[in-house]
Amino acid sequence: MPAFDHSNTPPEATKELVDGINAIIVGLRAMKIDSIQMAGPKSGSWYRNLIQVYVQAHLRRVLTFIDAGHAELKAGRSLVTEMCSRSIYESVACFCDFVNNLCPLLDADDVARIDEFIRTRTFATPVPEFLAEDKSVSATNIITQLEKLAKVQPDTMSAYTNLSDIVHPNALGTVIYFSVLDDDGLIRFPEVTTSAERARDMLFTAAIMLLHFQLALETLTPRLEKLSNPAADEAPSNA
Length: 239
Hints:
Distance between the termini: 49 Å
Strand content: under 5%
Largest sheet: 2 strands, antiparallel
Oligomer: single chain
Helix content: 55-70%
Structural class: mainly alpha
Shape: elongated
Strand order of the largest sheet: 1-2
Order of helices and strands: HHHHHHHHEEHH
Number of domains: 1
């Protein structure tokens, strides 16, 4: 079944747009693989597989948030759907930043920097206890990555900021989210409010960001194929 249909998309969403987003999701699902062999010396194929580990993990992450967003919306827990939408923005921004920084290193065949970059991004963390052992794996601030994505998708920051306000226990995510004020001054807490419609719309809007995830993959893929060539398995240079 398609991820989106007329029941879980904004009324103004065109059939062409919905079909396009569904096609991207189907394509991403088809890219999932069960395992990656990492044995062997550091070579072109080894680096390709190491990058693929990162790709597969992030692929599963965005698809998990799409699936969970739908499931929580159907279960009547629209606030959790908002959390999934926010996480999709973060995941796409992180992955695009990874690809945009890695591709120039691959093009330059800069093995030392490729090795260091993949390692630090794979094990990135903001946890002080971990950083005390290795400061090089300090995670890039997600706002920095989102701001980079906003250069190609201008509404990124406004959507993310709005979702963040809802996800955090501020007015939009608490009293305004769960209550309805009647004309007679009665405040009700219905099981379903217009917040559910909003969550539905934002999940679809977040899913549109998967286009950037797909484009990043299309940028990276030919470079990974080059790493698969026998010549890439020879002693690489640091030119």
